[in-house]
Specification:
With about 425 residues, this protein is mainly alpha-helical. The protein has three domains: about 70 residues, no CATH class; about 220 residues, no CATH class; about 55 residues, no CATH class. It has a two-stranded antiparallel ribbon with strand order 1-2. The longest helix is centred in the middle third of the chain and has 26 residues. The relative contact order is 0.05.
Length: about 425
């Protein structure tokens, strides 16, 4: 295989797959990671093999049976995976699915941050001891120090470090550990601002043979950092106003508009798919408090949701769950704006992406409601459908329009029967008592 060809994709993909498998506690992944760590822990990694490029053979237990000659990865491949961040990536994967207590998770995140922060970037984490707390057990403390001695000296490529810091920042933000997230942002900003960074720093492993992508990869990294910083700021600003809905909503609305403009500007820069996805996820989280019925009628919310579904469609995202939720919520917003045909179209797309059937019941209920509202001027044959049609129409109008006269007219229109008998006429003349 030619140098610079598809083989250059393999180490990065292996790191991603091994880390994900490690988070799922797969024995084979744990075995491979342990082997790579053992190789890196040697003073001379190639000394463990007679040939630095050849595979190691040893015994392994497969399905409860010990089998010999199980092929291990070469020492050089192990070193490559380590320099691409296999160890911190596996730690992050385990943290995402961890059910440890908060203190243990905090200590793990602090160790990861210390591991990824170089000596010249250590300023933001000078208070790491305060964040992590004091480890009372001496045995645990010894293990942490020993682990740090091995890995704090490991130097990763700056592009790898940046991506790991961004992943750690999003994880910390999701756990509401704002100090760790803020430190990740500041360390990343310091790395980006260094004069020694060249275009090769942002060399994309996904598209290595296109030099024109160097600038785009830097812009994608900066965009992801902007998204993390924007989301952190919105969470911090709105946190004190959780019991003041108006202020809380106003902060998120402003953050939503900023994220929307930044994502639109980023699309013109032709960001990579990962950065676009991060932008969509960030915009979605900022919009969550605005999905309440009084707020989601805002045109800005619909525009943000439309931007999300368009971006995910453009990059052909395989995150079907998010695409389903985005189309479903957009359908509800359009329905509140009395755009019933457009809402039905979005709901049909949501059905396409609900591959697990998780949202099927709720979407079917919304579909039936929209069908009744679409046929508002056709009187249903069943009385229960007629009553539901009235309720749907009542939900779709403003409270200022609910005058006694209009309510009376609504009942006349809905319950008037074509039989022409006296009972139908009486039903059409049901008086509505004014609440005034």
């Amino acid at each position: 295989m030619a140098v610079g060809g598809p083989a250059r994709h393999l180490p990065n993909n292996m790191v991603h797959l091994l880390a994900k498998a490690s988070g799922a506690n797969m024995p084979s992944a744990e075995r491979d990671i342990s082997w790579a760590l053992g190789v890196c822990g040697k003073s001379d990694p190639d000394a463990v093999e007679t040939n630095s490029l050849g595979p190691m053979k040893s015994s392994a237990t497969i399905d409860g049976t010990k089998k010999d000659n199980a092929v291990q990865m070469s020492g050089r491949l192990a070193q490559t995976l380590i320099t691409l961040g296999l160890f911190p990536a596996s730690k992050l994967a385990k943290l995402r699915v961890s059910n440890k207590e908060t203190t243990d998770q905090l200590n793990d995140m602090c160790r990861l941050l210390r591991m990824l922060s170089r000596s010249e970037d250590a300023g933001p984490i000078t208070a790491m001891g305060e964040l992590a707390g004091v480890i009372e057990n001496e045995g645990e403390q010894t293990a942490v120090i020993a682990e740090g001695d091995v890995w704090e000296g490991q130097v990763y490529e700056p592009s790898v470090t940046l991506q790991l810091l961004l992943d750690l920042g999003h994880l910390a933000l999701g756990r509401q550990v704002f100090g760790i997230c803020d430190a990740c942002v500041r360390v990343s900003e310091q790395i980006l601002s260094q004069e020694s960074i060249t275009a090769s720093l942002f060399h994309s492993i996904q598209t290595p043979n296109l030099p024109a992508n160097f600038l785009h990869n830097r812009e994608s990294t900066e965009f992801q950092l902007d998204m993390l910083a924007l989301r952190l700021k919105s969470v911090r600003d709105s946190f004190p106003f959780q019991r003041k809905p108006e202020k809380f909503i106003a902060i998120h609305r402003q953050a939503m508009l900023q994220c929307q403009k930044r994502l639109e500007r980023g699309l013109k820069q032709k960001l990579n798919s990962e950065a676009v996805h991060i932008g969509c996820v960030t915009l979605w989280h900022l919009c969550l408090p605005l999905f309440q019925r009084p707020e989601r009628r805002n045109q800005g919310v619909r525009k943000s949701l439309q931007l999300i579904v368009n971006c995910l469609e453009e990059i052909r995202s395989l995150h079907y769950r998010m695409r389903c939720e985005a189309h479903w919520m957009l359908a509800q917003c359009l329905a509140d704006a009395e755009q019933i045909p457009q809402a039905l179209a979005q709901l049909e797309k949501a059905f396409e992406f609900d591959d697990t059937g998780e949202f099927g019941e709720g979407m079917i209920h919304l579909y039936n409601r929209l069908q009744l509202r679409a046929n508002l001027y056709e009187v249903p044959t069943r009385p229960e459908d007629a009553a539901r049609q009235i309720l749907e129409h009542m939900l779709s109008i403003n409270s200022s329009d609910c005058s006694t006269r209009k309510l009376n007219q609504l009942f006349k229109t809905s319950f008037h029967l074509d039989t022409g008998n006296d009972q139908g006429e009486k039903l059409g003349e049901i008086p509505v008592v004014s609440s005034n």
